[in-house]
Write a structure and sequence with these properties.
Elements lengths: L1 E3 L2 E3 L7 E5 L23 H14 L7 E3 L8 E4 L11 E4 L5 E6 L3 E7 L5 E6 L1 H6 L1 H11 L7 E5 L9 E3 H10 L7 E3 L4 E4 L1 H11 L4 E4 L14 H6 L8 E6 L1
Parallel strand pairs: 4-7, 5-6, 10-14
Antiparallel strand pairs: 1-2, 2-3, 3-15, 6-9, 7-15, 8-9, 8-10, 11-13, 12-13
């Protein structure tokens, strides 16, 4: 992983313009300090727009090229084959167009940027526990397979998200996943009689490998523990903050 001022890059996505941006380097104030990119937050709209422009300028693309799905913790994938700027209600996007930058918003969930070893294709996934459980990874790979793209030719980069030492869940949560797939036991570490710690990145990588993906990178950043660098939904809730900022991760061909 390379850190460049206020963003991180994945070693396996070198041929793509991309970045997992921190919360540093923007214009927002208070709990949104400072690179908040979430229009659904209660931050000033003009600040969010300025922050997105800062990111576009940093990666040298036009802000008009940026497409971010209307994320709702689903397993839905949208496919973009042209330059039309439509509103996409989804948590994963596959793009075949050159003149587009794809973005994904997170604040503890895992931002995933996806490329291809040879073909002109890219994608993003907003991965939370609901999407993981409901098969968003499998849906993404099903859609790429339908486009005659082999999973083994895809490149996956998993950005900063809540880490395995911080993602505390209850017994019912752990049981739900383990009942779905017994192999998931290893991604839950018992903390005490009623709580477990969940390794969502490990679980995601396991699913990717099961589907034939081999080129996988993970940042190993923990948004909760590194809350001075990243926005964290859980940190905000524990500290009774009224709202929270959103991080933006971007990829462009």
């Amino acid at each position: 992983m390379m850190k460049k001022n206020n963003y991180y890059t994945a070693t396996n996505l070198n041929k793509y313009t991309h970045g997992f941006f921190s919360k540093i380097g923007g214009v927002s104030k208070g709990i949104y300090t400072s690179l908040n990119c979430g229009l659904s937050s209660n931050d000033k709209k003009e600040n969010v727009i300025t922050n997105k422009k800062i990111i576009a300028d940093t990666l040298n693309f036009n802000i008009e090229e940026l497409i971010i799905g209307n994320q709702f913790h689903s397993n839905k994938i949208s496919i973009i084959k042209d330059n039309k700027k439509l509103k996409y209600k989804c948590d994963g996007i596959i793009c075949l167009s050159n003149n587009i930058a794809l973005g994904v918003l997170t604040a503890d969930c895992c931002p995933i940027l996806i490329g291809h070893k040879n073909k002109k294709i890219m994608g993003v996934i907003h991965l939370g526990w609901k999407g993981l459980f409901d098969g968003i990874i499998e849906n993404f790979l099903l859609e790429t397979n339908n486009l005659d793209i082999n999973s083994s030719d895809l490149i996956f980069a998993l950005g900063p998200c809540i880490g395995k030492e911080s993602y505390e869940v209850d017994i019912a949560f752990a049981k739900k996943f383990i009942e779905q797939e017994s192999n998931y036991k290893k991604f839950f570490i018992k903390k005490n009689n009623s709580k477990y710690l969940f390794n969502i990145v490990g679980a995601a990588i396991s699913r990717l490998k099961k589907k034939g993906v081999t080129d996988i990178w993970a940042s190993n950043c923990d948004t909760f523990q590194q809350n001075k660098t990243f926005f964290s939904y859980r940190f905000s809730k524990i500290n009774n903050q009224a709202d929270y900022g959103r991080l933006l991760s971007v990829i462009k061909m």
